[in-house]
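Changelog-adjacent note: as of this version, every example in the card shows the full chain rather than a window. The one below runs 126 residues end to end.
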Amino acid sequence: MAVKKRYTDEELEEFRSIINEKLRLAHRDYSVMMRQIMNADGNDVDDTSPTYKALEEGSLTQTKEELMQMAVRQQKFIQGLEAALRRIDNKTYGIDRITGELIPKERLRAVPHATLSVESKNARKK
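Full-length structure tokens:
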């Protein structure tokens, strides 16, 4: 029996729908984070209550820094998902970039932008 070298077009379409849904949610979450960072949804009293501003300034700065870190991670996640869609288009999706073997479907369903199997990822860490 020949070893399967790539996923079928039907399987790739299943992964495409999973990725598109994750992308939709990731874009939504990224937009929410950016609105919070830019204070676009703010209806607070930042400019009208200077008494409390000094006390909250440190906390607000820390929160914005954490949001920025989360937004950067989210942006990287979106880029990973978009790259996965390109691999689907050129029919290289789901192929371990080290071994050339197929990444198990279970892994791809959980981490659709994965380019390494769990074994390859663990071996690479050592």
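Structural remarks: The chain has four helices and no strands.
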